[in-house]
Write a structure and sequence with these properties.
5 helices, Rossmann fold, 4 strands, alpha/beta
């Protein structure tokens, strides 16, 4: 079986103001916890046999360009768009822009969504069974 490539797209944790009421659904969350969760999820995906990499973006100044450039480096099988982009109402326009970048740049990539920084493997696994178990 060919290795499944996964691009995990999310906000740069150090740019997020977790004291903002928009992030109230994530009590106790910090940039360090988000980054640790993302790194652990990337390692978990790798251990399961996927080729996973992170693409962290800002709140819009360069986000589209950064994602477009990353997707242009090599084809990916799956793009996982993170919960911080999707679940925070004030990030909706950014989420839509990034989704459009994925659609235009990687039209054959499967798109999936996690619900937080620790369940990306489950999101990817819904579309691509872990290679080690396939």
């Amino acid at each position: 079986m060919t290795e499944v490539s996964v691009l995990m797209v999310g906000l740069q944790p150090d740019l997020i103001d977790f004291s903002d009421p928009a992030y109230a659904a994530f009590p106790g969350m910090t940039a360090e916890k988000v980054m640790a969760g993302l790194n652990a999820d990337q390692a978990r995906l790798t251990a399961l046999g996927y080729h996973a990499s992170l693409c962290l973006v800002d709140f819009g100044e360069t986000a589209e360009r950064v994602l477009h450039e990353r997707l242009g480096e090599k084809p990916v099988d799956c793009v996982m768009l993170g919960a911080g982009l999707r679940l925070i109402a004030k990030n909706t326009a950014l989420f839509e822009k990034l989704l459009a970048v994925v659609h235009r740049t990687s039209p054959n990539a499967t798109i999936c969504f996690n619900t937080g920084p620790t369940d990306s493997a489950e999101a990817v696994g819904r579309w691509f069974p872990p290679p080690q178990r396939a």
